[in-house]
Specification:
With about 120 residues, this protein is α+β, with helices and mostly antiparallel strands. It has 5 helices and 4 strands; from the N terminus they run ββαααβαβα. The protein has one domain: Orthogonal Bundle (Arc Repressor Mutant, subunit A). The model has no long low-confidence stretch (mean pLDDT about 90).
């Protein structure tokens, strides 16, 4: 049983909620980044292990939760279509990544102190 306690770590996850929807979180930020890198909904989803439907649903939520769409699509198939981030999409992604970095930096000291207290109890006492 002690092997499950070998590595203590802290997982921080920032999510912006709008009503019952996650407007952005780690998965949607990764998707925005993948769209920016691939220029394709299908390729972005595949690179993250998401189905096309899940990818589309995430884009629909991203576009509905902000003042302006974050992702734009040009229909046209393999050789003529494309997907890209709007300037708002680039801004939201950059600010979300900055938020993640700030959270991790702020938590570094308290997390180390907390994790130093973790580990299995000594069953021999």
């Amino acid at each position: 049983m002690a092997e499950i306690f070998d590595q203590a770590s802290l997982k921080l996850k920032a999510q912006v909620l709008l009503g019952g929807a996650i407007a952005i979180g780690p998965g949607k930020a990764d998707l925005l980044e993948a769209i920016g890198n691939t220029g394709s909904i299908a390729a972005a989803g595949r690179s993250l292990g998401f189905s096309y439907r899940r990818t589309r649903d995430m884009i629909d939520i991203l576009n509905a939760c902000w003042q302006v769409p974050l992702v734009t699509t040009i229909k046209g198939g393999k050789s003529h279509g494309g997907t890209s981030l709007t300037p708002a999409g680039e801004a939201v992604l950059a600010r979300y990544r900055a938020l993640e970095a700030a959270l991790h930096q702020a938590a570094e000291g308290p997390a180390a102190e907390l994790l130093a207290l973790s580990g299995p109890t000594d069953d021999n006492d």
